[in-house]
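Entry:
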Amino acid sequence: MAETFTYDNLIVGGDVVTDGAVLEAGQNLKRGAVLGKVDATGELKLSDDAATDGSQSVYAILNEDCDASGGAKRCAIIIAGEVNANSLIFGGNHTAASTKDAFRDLGIYLKEGE
């Protein structure tokens, strides 16, 4: 069976750089989720500005839907490129405005798209 791709406007310019990472158990996140990295484990989870485990700092963007509700799971992440700020899923009180500079430092550029 052939796979199909539904264009979702997440990627807005040129190429993106992707990598693999482990999503922390207990999460079921959609493509575009803004991820933070837990210092103690190196696993990723939805970044929350109120966290104190390292995940309060943005680290990457989830590049595919990933269901780790049954246990930690490897998934694809975006680590560099241009993405649509309006397609991102933020945790806590994070917003495009509050994370723009941190993402720029990582080589991820937030653009205003549809």
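The CA atoms of residues 12 and 79 lie 14 Å apart.
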